[in-house]
Amino acid sequence: MRKTIVFAAAILTLGLRAGAQEPAGEAREAVKSVVERTVNSIIDVLKDKANDREARRRKIFAIVDPVTDFALMGKLALGTSHWPKFDEDQRKEYTDSFSRTVRDSCFEKVEIYTNETVTFDPAAPAEKGKVRMLMHILSKGQRYKVFFKLYRAGSSWKIYDLEIEGVSLIRTYGAQYDQVLQKGSPKDLLAKMKSKGMATPDDLKNVGKSKDKK
């Protein structure tokens, strides 16, 4: 079901440092705890019908913000080819706009949750000391894969990307921003983001659509 995939993206989306090739057992358990606690806490908020929309929004962001590095996510979306083009003030404005765009878009879509079942696999090592955590969403006989990508930030672990059915949040937003920056300037991109003239990338909107038609 397409809305299930959009819900998965919202968990993003509604929470890099090199390390050992494989995280220690305690680290893997810490990552698993972060992801499971975040997802289950969001679901609890959505299930509580006593919350009005603004209360749900406030509570969900209180859960997601501490475990998600939106600043790094935005920087990686621009990549090494575009990030250096932004001065300090532009970087701050971009980071604020990117965070707001992703958070608002995710919140609008996470509300479609309708008691889908979620299960989790153990955390697994990824390249350069990062960790991937796989979540399955089960809905009407279909199983969808959502990879949470985390890195160690001091003594904690933070989410810096989501990959839903093979579609990366960072790469997808990055491709959209690249189209603007190939022909324009950081100022042009910031203006479009400020005016909310940039829609959710098609790759994210269409994730899972082909499955739903089967």
List keywords for this structure.
about 210 residues; alpha+beta; Nuclear Transport Factor 2, Chain: A; 6-stranded antiparallel sheet; about 55% helix; about 20% strand
Topology:
Blueprint: H1 2-13, H2 25-47, H3 53-64, H4 70-82, H5 88-110, E1 117-120, E2 124-125, E3 131-139, E4 142-153, E5 156-164, E6 167-168, H6 169-183, H7 186-194, H8 202-205, H9 209-212
Antiparallel strand pairs: 1-3, 2-3, 3-4, 4-5, 5-6
Helix pairs in contact: 1-5, 2-3, 4-5, 4-6, 5-7
Q: What would you say this structure looks like, in words?
A:
The structure is a single chain. This protein is an alpha+beta fold. The chain has one domain (2-204): Nuclear Transport Factor 2, Chain: A, CATH 3.10.450. Helix content is 54%, strand content 18%. It is built from nine helices and six strands, in the order H-H-H-H-H-E-E-E-E-E-E-H-H-H-H. Strands 1, 2, 3, 4, 5 and 6 form a six-stranded antiparallel beta sheet that branches. A hairpin with a 5-residue loop joins strand 2 (124-125) and strand 3 (131-139). Helix 4 (70-82) packs across helix 5 and helix 4 (70-82) crosses helix 6. The model is unreliable at 15-23 (pLDDT under 50).
